[in-house]
């Protein structure tokens, strides 16, 4: 009997030694940032489904915006290519509105094609490049957020750690600025908006490389004239509900990426001053 118990004990000890120890969320964030710093090239795809509902005294109007995009980034050459197609579907309107945008960032010059028209802006400051490095920006936000390891999963055949991201109000404002694009945040009651909004964010990190393979975020905002710092009298809406689901896949890290400007873009017209800001990375 004693020999049997001893054998069982040895089996249990041996099995325990084979059980993978999951790193803490803080350790994973540290390893993630270290890995991201070593990334020279990457590719990513984005899918965003957004529903906006405007509510006024007479009823409500809803429209959907579906965006699909792709980004190639070469950090070494400070070059980036991005394409984005957005389709807007207003409620009770048969014909949808589709907008195609293509952007090249080559050193200090940005070329942008909106539908069929090319424009160019030169003399981009170095910090503008940092803003457009979508991978690094997203991971910086995650690094400054609370995180919790909630499980593991396979993404594209790779084993991953599943992290739940819990942004604080400062991080929330950064994400909000990206979602709202060029719309200024001054005047907005961020505290009230943060407290009344919903945000669920999950990131999957490769167990092997600690690099992100997938990011999925759901954000629901309820905006009112008071929240936006607008006078209630004269406002054409009582509230605006914005429900966004955004999924990004990252892949082909440190694989060859050639970004070449199309010949048609070389005759691009100078970008108007009011359009001098690049669109935020999605």
Radius of gyration: 23 Å
Strand order of the largest sheet: 7-8-9-10-11-1-2-3-4-5-6-12
Overall form? globular
CATH class assignment: Mainly Beta
Continuous helix count: 6
The portion of residues assigned to helices is: 10-25%
Summing up helix and strand content along with how strands pair, one would put the structural category as alpha+beta
Indicate the proportion of strand residues.
35-45%
Main sheet makeup: 12 strands, mixed
Short description:
By secondary structure, this protein is an alpha+beta fold. It has helices at 2-18, 25-37, 126-132, 134-143, 169-180, 190-196, and strands at 41-56, 59-74, 79-90, 97-106, 109-114, 117-121, 146-155, 158-166, 198-206, 212-223, 239-251, 269-270.
Structure description:
With 282 residues, the chain is of the alpha+beta class. It has a single domain (33-275), classed as outer membrane lipoprotein receptor (LolB), chain A. Helix content is 23%, strand content 43%. The protein has helices at 2-18, 25-37, 126-132, 134-143, 169-180, 190-196, and strands spanning 41-56, 59-74, 79-90, 97-106, 109-114, 117-121, 146-155, 158-166, 198-206, 212-223, 239-251, 269-270. A hairpin with a 2-residue loop joins strand 7 and strand 8. Helix 2 (25-37) runs antiparallel to helix 4. Residues 11-18 and 274-282 have low confidence and may be disordered.
